[in-house]
Amino acid sequence: MNKKNNDALRATYPDYANDLERLKAYNAEHSDNALTGEKARYHNKYQGQPEDYQKHIATYGENYKYVTPANKQGFHSEFIINDKTNNLVSQWNAYEIYENGIVNSDSNKQYTKEEQIQLVDGNSVNFAESAGGWNHHTEFDSNPVSKYDPEVRKKIGKEWKSPVTGKGKESAPHYFDTDKSEKDANERLKND
Question: Angle CA(184)–CA(187)–CA(190) in degrees, nearest 5?
Fold first, then answer.
């Protein structure tokens, strides 16, 4: 589904310089159904030790998350945009896709670090509703994805870590400020 969303965004706004500009154009046309910024901790993974996190962000950029409003069933789409390229971060940027539509997601292929980032930090379609103490997100999003995710994402994902959040962790070298992430994402989405 997220490949279709990516393709639709680019096909609808082909004349824009990058995907962030396309999201802004979408919002300008659909203010009643506009995307909003959201915290993006799970979309800013790194490799190595906690001390390597800031170096990773300085080299590859920070990723920002934009979500569609959840529909009545709680589903929403995510678009992850990298701040250095202003383009989508998506597993579909890493796979080889043949003319006949077949996708090569070979888990034995040697993926570059840039391709691995696309695989582990990319966008998705989520079920985000939580009601009555029962977390629908886990049942409808996290658990099925872990079962049906391509083998290559499972294999490569083991080598990547998410930064930390929470009280008392602000001084950690791999601390991720979720409030700042959401605020910055919304600032970047504004038309100048």
Answer: 155
Helix axes 113-121, 53-60, angle to 10 degrees: 100
Quick check: pTM over 0.70?
yes
Tally Cβ neighbours within 10 Å of residue 90: 21
3-state SS class at 130? strand
Give the pair of three-digit tokens for residue 150. Answer: 């391509």
> Which pair of tokens denotes residue 80?
């992850």
- Position of tokens 């590859």? 60
Tell me the C-alpha distance between 177 and 54, whole Å.
13
Helix (H, G, I), strand (E, B) or coil at 174: coil
Residue type, 10: R
CB-based burial label for 188 (10 Å; 0-12, 13-18, 19+): middle
Specify the residue for token string 């597993």. 91
Tens of pLDDT, residues 100-148:
989 888 888 999 999 999 999 988 765 555 444 445 555 555 555 556 6
Query: Are 151 and 105 within 8 A, CB to CB?
Result: yes
Instruction: Go through 63-89 and write b for each residue having 16 or more CB atoms within 10 A of its CB, e for each that does not.
Output: bbbbbbeeeeebbbbbbbbbeeebbbb
